[in-house]
């Protein structure tokens, strides 16, 4: 268990002009679960591999438990990693896979046996101990890979998209299980994923990366409510946030097919700008209702367009509406009957608008859903 | 139409459907018969006949006589020993060197492409040419490269083929077959998943552990294939011996293949040679059974995966 600290860490691959990771700064809490998330090629895996020592960072320092690990070989960093492909040793039984690192460290036989069996117990793979990896299902292999990591009781766990090879249901189960395991063991964990749902559900803090640059490091709720910029706003949340370009005049924003009123806080945030980028989450859009909207004060906010897609999900329905040039996704109640080709009017509370500067794409104002976490130290 | 008639019709249709399969299989079966079973049967037949071209008047069944002659011939036993020695030593050398070279060529270095092509080149040289190259250009006590090297160093040139005949033969065969082992092992190395190496590194392994616990087990299957295939080729080594030592001096480099050749085309004793050939077939089969078992075993393992 250890605190991992990145100080201005950068990585430049030989022959590459730009940095794969630029100026990464992060200090974890002891035992924190950090998720690195971002689209492919954003440098999240590179960052993780730099912690492991499988890639050498070219700028800055990485400290694990207060020790600068620059130039320290992977085997001496006391780190365990779970690979996307699991990377189990195919010729060894599950028991030997798990015991291998302990054998290399020359632990006593009885001690190894005890540790392996304890880990197997925790993961529920005791009956599989004498099988070879090829005789296991994907989920079982996943557990063995986790087992191999936890028997060592390392200072830091690294998990590189460990769930991406599992089917959807198993993924949800394992997600919860890894979270539970982390709570039980309390080991500082880095988890790489491109799946924002995984990131949101598992991470205590999430580092959103793009093109090798950290966009924001914060708790899931803060990322959702106060994204640092358009990218984070669009990346966090499913379906993705709707982004609209609007002109500002007389306390309201207009664009092709929509008008949105600004409340006092948003007016302040917008300042003197005459153009804004507006973000609206699908869950904050609903079908306009003249009577209710007067009461809610959203009568001035209107988005009109033709319904292009209707996706009933049972508990709710997703519709895609073409508003001017933009496709807007809205989440509506399943009892609200909407058909493809219908013209609908959507509305949204003034306090549910995210405003971004159109030039810098930085957030001017986010939303307050009332669940703000204390930002981690 | 009754049920039985329907069934009969179905059977007829099934038969008609299957008929072309027989014809399509026929070429392969005929090829196998003509090229393998017939010669084998004839060899077995001759091995039980009195059949010496120098004594055409003596014919008829010989029973076990040819085999008894063979059993009592010290040259046969020495040929058997030479054969096994060639197989064993060549295997050790080619697999050892091949593995070392494969590990070398698996790494990145300047000029790897050219070096790899050069390293593979001996494999494309015909065995007869291999024999001639080594005999005339390398081993030759007067014009050979090695002789020149020795003279340059102020040493007495060695007549390799005369003084160390078997070692020379083994050197030539190993030179020829090391590239094969290297190529196969190299492809094996290239199929080793990088993340397994990374996992083992994080598990605290040093280079030796990596090699011992990950690389070697991964290469296990290809190693076995290399060993088995090479065994069968080494068992039948002939051209290198024919073009250089002609089995000599004496019988120092006479292996089973050369012994059979001499029996047939020098002593014209086809009966005894056939008996020796049957012996060689048995020996080759011992190796082949291992090979087939292993390959079949692997196929089954692949299905279970």
What does this structure look like?
- The complex is a heterodimer of chains A (377) and B (305).
- Chain A has helices at residues 44-52, 94-104, 109-123, 138-150, 168-185, 196-202, 220-225, 230-235, 264-270, 290-296, and strands at residues 4-11, 21-27, 33-37, 59-64, 67-68, 79-82, 156-160, 188-193, 205-210, 213-218, 242-249, 252-255, 258-261, 275-280, 285-287, 302-312, 317-323, 326-332, 343-348, 354-356, 363-365.
- By secondary structure, chain A is an alpha+beta fold.
- In chain A, helix 2 (94-104) crosses helix 3, helix 2 (94-104) packs parallel to helix 4 and helix 3 crosses helix 4 (138-150).
- The radius of gyration of chain A is 24 Å and the shape is elongated.
- Chain A folds into 2 domains: 4-230, P-loop containing nucleotide triphosphate hydrolases (Rossmann fold); 240-365, OB fold (Dihydrolipoamide Acetyltransferase, E2P).
- In chain A, 26% of the residues lie in helices and 31% in strands.
- Chain A contains 10 helices and 21 strands.
- Chain B has one domain (72-304): MetI-like (MetI-like fold, Orthogonal Bundle).
- Chain B has helices spanning 3-47, 65-71, 74-106, 112-120, 127-138, 145-152, 160-163, 165-190, 194-202, 207-235, 239-244, 256-265, 270-304.
- The longest helix of chain B is centred in the N-terminal third of the chain and has 45 residues, at 3-47.
- The model of chain B has no long low-confidence stretch (mean pLDDT 85).
Summarize the structure.
The complex is a heterodimer of chains A (about 375) and B (about 300). Chain A has about 375 residues and is α+β, with helices and mostly antiparallel strands.
């Amino acid at each position: 268990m250890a605190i991992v600290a990145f100080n201005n860490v950068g990585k430049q691959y030989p022959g590459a002009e730009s940095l794969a990771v630029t100026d990464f700064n992060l200090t974890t809490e002891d035992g924190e679960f950090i998720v690195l998330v971002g689209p492919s090629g954003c440098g999240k895996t590179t960052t993780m591999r730099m912690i492991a020592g499988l890639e050498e960072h070219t700028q800055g320092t990485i400290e694990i438990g207060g020790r600068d690990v620059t130039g320290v070989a992977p085997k001496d960093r006391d780190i365990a990693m779970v690979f996307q492909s699991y990377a189990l040793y195919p010729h060894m039984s599950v028991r030997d896979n798990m015991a291998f690192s302990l054998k290399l460290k020359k632990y006593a036989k009885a001690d190894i046996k005890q540790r392996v069996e304890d880990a197997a117990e925790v993961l529920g793979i005791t009956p599989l101990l004498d099988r070879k990896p090829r005789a296991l299902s994907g989920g079982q292999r996943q557990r063995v890979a986790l087992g191999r990591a936890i028997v060592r009781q390392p200072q830091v766990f690294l998990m590189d998209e460990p769930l991406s090879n599992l089917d959807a249901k198993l993924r949800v189960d394992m997600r919860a299980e890894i979270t539970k395991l982390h709570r039980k063991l309390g080991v500082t964990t880095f988890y790489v994923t491109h799946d924002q749902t995984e990131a949101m559900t598992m991470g205590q803090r999430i580092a959103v990366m793009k093109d090798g640059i950290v966009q924001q490091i914060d708790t899931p709720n803060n990322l959702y409510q106060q994204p640092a910029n358009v990218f984070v706003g669009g990346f966090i949340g499913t379906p993705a946030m709707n982004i609209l370009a609007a002109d500002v005049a007389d306390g309201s924003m207009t664009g092709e097919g929509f008008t949105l009123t600004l409340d006092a806080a948003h007016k302040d945030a917008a300042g003197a700008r005459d153009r804004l980028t507006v973000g609206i989450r699908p869950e904050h859009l609903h079908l306009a209702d003249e009577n209710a909207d007067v009461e809610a004060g959203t009568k001035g906010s209107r988005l009109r367009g033709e319904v292009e897609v209707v996706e009933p999900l049972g508990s709710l329905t997703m519709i895609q509406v073409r508003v001017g040039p933009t496709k807007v996704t809205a989440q509506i109640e399943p009892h609200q009957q909407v058909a493809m080709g219908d013209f609908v009017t959507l509305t949204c509370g003034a306090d549910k608008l995210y405003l971004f500067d159109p030039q810098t794409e930085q957030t001017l104002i986010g939303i307050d859903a009332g669940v703000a976490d204390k930002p981690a130290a | 139409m009754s049920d039985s008639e329907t069934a009969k019709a179905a059977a007829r249709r099934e038969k008609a459907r299957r008929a072309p399969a027989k014809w399509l299989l026929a070429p392969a079966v005929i090829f196998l018969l003509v090229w393998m079973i017939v010669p084998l049967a004839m060899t077995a037949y001759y091995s039980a006949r009195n059949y010496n071209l120098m004594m055409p008047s003596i014919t008829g069944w010989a029973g076990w006589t040819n085999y008894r002659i063979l059993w009592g011939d010290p040259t046969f036993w020495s040929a058997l020993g030479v054969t096994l020695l060639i197989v064993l030593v060549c295997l050790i050398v080619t697999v050892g060197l091949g593995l070392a070279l494969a590990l070398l060529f698996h790494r990145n270095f300047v000029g790897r492409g050219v070096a790899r092509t050069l390293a593979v080149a001996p494999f494309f040289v015909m065995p007869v040419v291999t024999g001639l190259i080594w005999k005339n250009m390398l081993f030759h006590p007067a014009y050979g490269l090695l002789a020149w090297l020795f003279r340059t160093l102020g040493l007495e040139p060695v007549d390799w083929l005369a003084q160390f005949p078997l070692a020379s033969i083994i050197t030539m065969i190993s030179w020829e077959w090391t590239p094969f082992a290297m190529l196969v092992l190299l492809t094996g190395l290239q199929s080793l998943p990088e993340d397994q190496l990374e996992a083992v590194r994080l598990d605290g392994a040093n280079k030796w552990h990596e090699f011992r616990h990950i690389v070697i087990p991964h290469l296990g299957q290809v190693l076995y294939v290399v060993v088995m295939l090479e065994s069968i080729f080494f068992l039948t080594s002939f051209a290198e011996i024919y073009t250089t030592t002609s089995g000599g001096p004496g019988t120092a480099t006479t292996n089973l293949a050369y012994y059979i050749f001499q029996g047939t085309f020098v002593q014209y004793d086809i009966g005894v040679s056939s008996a020796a050939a049957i012996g060689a077939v048995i020996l080759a089969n011992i190796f082949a059974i291992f090979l087939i078992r292993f390959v079949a075993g692997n196929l089954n393992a692949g299905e279970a995966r």
